[in-house]
């Protein structure tokens, strides 16, 4: 089994750029809550999505199937224009996706909705959807640095042809604390593959320009303990990823 090379989660400190400020409130105590929606090149962009596809997604039974990578900062206390205390959260997204949302009202509303939902899930909050985008300021208080996780790259190890592999073209199996992906394509060797893992995303590229696979998972992956194996006889790549318990 190929072991991930680093023992601690790979990360780096970024200083995001300002974007827009959204005013909301906490449903429990009605206190003001502000979202500094910031932008950075360090955050990966979500998969391409047209406006028509977004409309179909929002009308579907599972709109959460489309994931927007974002970094959610810790709450910090600031003082608003009325000299009253308020809680502020910094949400960092990809800069190109932010610009796209600025040009399209539907994408902007979608971005705000997923930001609110992300904060609610992470911090066990309930935030009002009666929001207001502040026109004359791009952020509340100050925007601090954030430590974001970077992609982890499992080592792909070639193994002998006696190993018993599943013969399907590709499959994803998640359950019992582990997620397994298997791919069969005419891959010449492990050296032609580029595999990246995010917290909930797998990107596989077969060079030169054989295919590009991008998968989002409905759960969090333990990147540091994920392993990958490539069978040279069946030309099958299998990635085994432990699931982070919630």
Automatic annotation (TrEMBL):
Signal peptide residue numbers: none
Region called Disordered, residue ranges:
1-23
| Top-level division of the source organism's lineage | Eukaryota
Q: Where is the PIH1D1/2/3 CS-like domain?
A: 186-244
Instruction: Cite a single GO BP annotation.
Output: box C/D snoRNP assembly
Look up the coiled coil feature and give its residue ranges.
none
Gene Ontology cellular-component terms listed: cytoplasm; R2TP complex; ribonucleoprotein complex
PIH1 N-terminal domain segment(s)? 7-154
**What family, per the record?**
Belongs to the PIH1 family.
Q: What does this protein do?
A: Involved in the assembly of C/D box small nucleolar ribonucleoprotein (snoRNP) particles. Recruits the SWI/SNF complex to the core promoter of rRNA genes and enhances pre-rRNA transcription. Mediates interaction of TELO2 with the R2TP complex which is necessary for the stability of MTOR and SMG1. Positively regulates the assembly and activity of the mTORC1 complex.
Entry protein name: PIH1 domain-containing protein 1
Q: Which organism is it from?
A: Labeo rohita (Indian major carp)
